[in-house]
Write a structure and sequence with these properties.
globular, alpha/beta, 323 residues, binds NADP nicotinamide-adenine-dinucleotide phosphate, two-stranded parallel sheet
């Protein structure tokens, strides 16, 4: 255990990525704090971590805080060296009013940054999304990199807009009012990998459960990059401590994008025992496949993600074990 003198806050320990991030930090010997909207969810987190082999909870503490309120953020960031701001609303269906997502995403991120700056935190790592990178430009013959930004004025779903608006606001804050606080941003594509303690997210619910239980009965004309949650937690920690990560954003993706047809075919081939409810889906045209690069994360952070197949099969295995 090499890092016992550093304290890290992870916002949203109840989430799919949040719990994996808390787990890896504890495994690496950090002191960890995590925020929850309600402390009543503490037991779910402890149970999930116990299932993953954590026995000593003296290095983990909980603070109740909501992204839509100022309460307790100063308490949450107190004594922290680093803050990983993972929490943000990610519903399976967009709400009718986009502000239900945009306000907590943007104002919540600004609350976390202000509190971090005022408490003397060294660096914040923000979980943004590929949503803030690759959702307005024409995808034809384009390989998306960290230079790309989704245009907030394009026609966007509420979730995609919320992530783009929040990331933009955060960079602006750092430039104008950061007062030396460092920022690094992670832009993950669709996050898969194992659900621990039964904690899933919209990505698993839609693209894994939806395909396996047969509610997905048409292939959306859309492709997604895939990345394993364990690698997304790992890249947050790498970006937290690597001096070269300050002021940078990093796309977190394994390799090429997949359609939901491709995901269904993978499950049918590799996990025929789960495939009885999978609906016949049609392939989509190659012109709809997005390309995105993970070169920057690999080169600067020496990040080496698992394959998309391993990520998706780990999701399916963990979900089928629970059902
Ligand atoms: P998740 O399981 O739904 O986690 C979302 C977390 O945000 C939960 O802990 C949730 O708390 C918290 N949260 C939502 N609204 C909040 C509020 N008003 N105040 C405080 N906390 C709030 O989804 P996830 O996949 O782990 O997402 C984690 C992060 O990764 C998000 O920033 C998401 O945008 C980003 N991301 C996800 C994917 C993906 O494919 N999964 C891809 C790219 C980026 P409750 O448990 O109380 O609801």
């Amino acid at each position: 255990m090499e890092n016992t003198n550093k304290t890290v806050l992870v916002t949203g320990g109840t989430g799919f990525l949040g719990i994996h991030t808390v787990l890896q930090l504890l495994q690496q010997g950090y002191e960890v704090k995590t925020t929850l909207r309600s402390l009543s969810k503490k037991d779910t987190i402890i149970k999930a971590l116990e299932e993953e082999g954590i026995a000593d909870f003296s290095h983990l503490s909980f603070v109740e805080a909501d992204l839509t309120s100022d309460n307790n953020w100063d308490e949450a960031v107190k004594d922290c060296d680093y803050v990983l701001h993972v929490a943000s609303p990610f519903p399976a269906q967009d709400p009718r009013d986009e502000n239900e997502l945009i306000i907590p995403a943007r104002d919540g991120a600004l609350r976390v940054l202000k509190a971090s700056r005022d408490a003397g935190v060294k660096r914040v790592v923000l979980t943004s999304s590929f949503a803030a990178v690759g959702y307005s430009k024409d995808i034809k013959d384009h390989i998306f990199t960290e230079e790309d930004w989704t245009d907030v004025n394009a026609e966007l779903s509420a979730y995609i807009k919320s992530k783009t608006v929040a990331e933009k606001a955060v960079w602006e804050f750092i430039e104008k009012e950061g007062n030396g606080l460092e920022l690094s941003v992670i832009n993950p594509v669709g996050i898969f990998g194992p659900a621990i303690g039964g904690i899933t997210s919209a990505s698993l619910d839609i693209a894994v459960s939806g395909i396996l239980n047969g509610t997905m009965n048409q292939t959306p004309v859309f492709t997604m990059g895939v990345v394993d949650v364990r690698d997304v937690a790992d890249i947050h920690i790498k970006a937290m401590i690597d001096p070269k990560a300050a002021g940078e954003r990093f796309i977190a993706t394994s390799n090429d994008a997949m359609s939901f047809y491709d995901v269904a075919e993978l499950f049918k081939k590799e996990r025929p025992q789960y495939a009885e409810n999978i609906q016949p889906l049609e392939p989509i045209d190659k012109e709809f496949y997005k390309e995105m690069s993970n070169e920057k994360a690999k080169t600067i952070l020496h990040w080496n993600p698992r394959s998309r197949e391993e990520a998706l099969l780990a999701s399916a295995d963990s979900l089928m074990k629970k059902s």
